[in-house]
């Protein structure tokens, strides 16, 4: 299942709103967020999608570990997704840059061709 940014925002807002008024639901959200989301919205979230809930009472620290790399030169899944298929911003930025370079090169080639054509025409008219 693929969620839009709006669906994620709506789901988060629904869980927070219900957790603010229902202590039992708040406890469920902390202990089993997947069940809480289903209860609040009817939507099921795949277990592969990791969601962490922190109750704002007390002090907490969250440590996010980076993706593990197989080798030093290997891209992580996130890095690979950012350039694969041309649909992510990294690929868009890359291809926009390449497009500008190609466009500049094409304009230069047209300019050279125009100059050569003008020189040839000039030589023909002098003959």
Largest sheet: none
Q: Low-confidence runs (pLDDT<50, min 5 residues)?
A: none
The helix/strand class is mainly alpha
Helical residue percent? 55-70%
Order of helices and strands: HHHHH
How many whole angstroms does the radius of gyration measure?
28 Å
CA(first)-CA(last) distance: 73 Å
The mean pLDDT is: 74
**Residue fraction in strands:** under 5%
Q: What is the count of helical runs?
A: 5
Tertiary shape: elongated
Number of strands: 0
Secondary-structure blueprint:
Blueprint lengths: L4 H17 L1 H9 L1 H9 L35 H7 L5 H38 L1
Helix pairs in contact: 1-2, 1-3, 2-3
Descriptive report:
The chain is mainly α. The chain has helices at residues 5-21, 23-31, 33-41, 77-83, 89-126. The chain is 63% helix and 0% strand. The radius of gyration is 28 Å and the shape is elongated. The chain has five helices and no strands. The model has no long low-confidence stretch (mean pLDDT 74).
In short:
The chain is mostly helical and 127 residues long. It has helices at 5-21, 23-31, 33-41, 77-83, 89-126. It has five helices and no strands.
Summary keywords:
single chain; elongated; 127 residues; 0% strand; mainly alpha; 5 helices
């Amino acid at each position: 299942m693929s969620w839009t940014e709006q669906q994620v925002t709506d789901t988060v807002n629904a869980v927070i709103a219900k957790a603010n008024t229902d202590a039992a639901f708040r406890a469920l959200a902390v202990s089993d967020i997947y069940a809480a989301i289903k209860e609040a919205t009817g939507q099921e979230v795949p277990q592969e999608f990791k969601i962490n809930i922190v109750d704002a009472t007390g002090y907490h620290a969250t440590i996010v570990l980076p993706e593990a790399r197989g080798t030093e030169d290997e891209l992580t899944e996130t890095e690979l997704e950012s350039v694969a298929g041309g649909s992510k911003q990294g690929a868009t930025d890359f291809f926009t840059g390449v497009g500008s370079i190609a466009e500049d090169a094409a304009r230069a080639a047209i300019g050279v061709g125009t100059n050569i054509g003008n020189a040839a025409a000039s030589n023909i008219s002098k003959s």
